Amino acid sequence: MENVTETPLLSPKGTFPATVVKVIDDYKLVINRGEISGIREGQRMLVYNTSEEEIKDLQTGESLGYLDLVRGTGTITFVQEKISILQSDRANNKGSRLLELLLKEQETPSDLIGKFIKRAVGANSKNDKKPISELINRELLNKLLVWELSETLPFENPQIGDSVRPI
């Protein structure tokens, strides 16, 4: 998949907000914009619903507008002429917090998550008592932990008619 997150969106005026026209499941939505609107695979989008209730300042009574309720974020995974599929890309990155704890405490593989770490550094008894920070590149360990412990979260109650815009 082409990485287009840093490429400016060159869509015709009036392209956004787009609309959710079908909920495939809580992880995949169909939007009413496609190739002719400049949509490309890899683009990230925000899915939201604007509240029906106008919010007013309690002191002045002035209208403050309407609240956008975020349903989630996603990445375009498939593009047709007039429609696209948007797949949730939110994750619960539990691995980052675990990495902090491992390196802070200088835990050894046998102390905490032996099976996983042994798989990452190799099942070698001489490595078993060394701090993880000496055995594996921190960036690589972070990627392994995030991959191992993350899961994609669904959109929050997506509905036909929700709005979609690039992020």
Description:
The protein is α+β, with helices and mostly antiparallel strands and 167 residues long. It has two domains: 16-89 and 152-164, Thrombin, subunit H; 91-147, no CATH class. The protein has four helices and six strands, in the order E-E-E-E-E-H-H-H-H-E. Strands 1-2-5-4-3-6 form a six-stranded antiparallel barrel. A hairpin with a 2-residue loop joins strand 1 and strand 2. Helix 1 crosses helix 4 (138-149). It starts with 17 loop residues before the first strand and ends with a strand. The relative contact order is 0.24.
Can you describe this structure in just a few lines?
The protein folds into 2 domains: 16-89 and 152-164, FlgT, C-terminal domain (Thrombin, subunit H, Beta Barrel); 91-147, no CATH class.
